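User: Hey, my collaborator sent me this sequence without any context and asked if I could get a structure. I don't really work with proteins. Can you help?
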Amino acid sequence: MSMALSSHTPSTLSLTATQSSTPSTPKPTSHKLSTSTSGPDQKWRAKVSFFPAFLKKGKDAKTLKEELFQAIAPLDRGADATPEDQQIVDQIARKLEAANPIKEPLKSNLLNGKWELIYTTSRSILQTQRPKFLRSSANYQAINSDTLRAQNMESWPFFNQVTADLTPLNARKVAVKFDYFKIAGLIPIKAPESARGELEITYLDEELRVSRGDKGNLFILKMVDPSYRVPT
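Assistant: No problem. I've predicted the 3D structure and written it out in structure-token form, which is a compact way to encode the shape of the chain:
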């Protein structure tokens, strides 16, 4: 961080002499002295005023991830989140996104594999309209950046799946076109042409991924199997 300082000229001295009109009896000379603030003093003040900026240094990614995990732990993947809970999680997620170490996630091998959804604001994925015993007990998403394929999977009690083709829109955002649903993981059904969306990967490291969808939903996932391959 650089800081420009403007320096002043050194202290100036103004001297005026007054003398009596009678040459034989000179009166003592009087002096008028004026000083301006010195350059070193200004530099010292500038440095002191800059101290608070260092004290306000942001938290690192590790600390923010710990805060995020603590915030979402009691929320049942988001199903029990109040609007206030959602706001808190979103604020932490945004701070984490600002510390994203991977600027081009679609080019990173860390993206590949099977991820478990640990929090989302999507009510359709959370299935909040159903009784709890009919909701999926876990949700997964797999991505393979080399083949540009993705797969969403539910666990007990229905094991539904859907696969999709990905089209990069930039280094961190893809268009998603779903192709086949699998009921109970077995019965394939062709997805309608309207089954499309977009997904932006806003944070990525070896254990955590944060993504945002085109409908404004937030998705937070943890890596469970980096070797998993999406069916082609």
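In plain terms: DSSP finds four helices and nine strands in the chain. You can pass these tokens on to your collaborator as they are.
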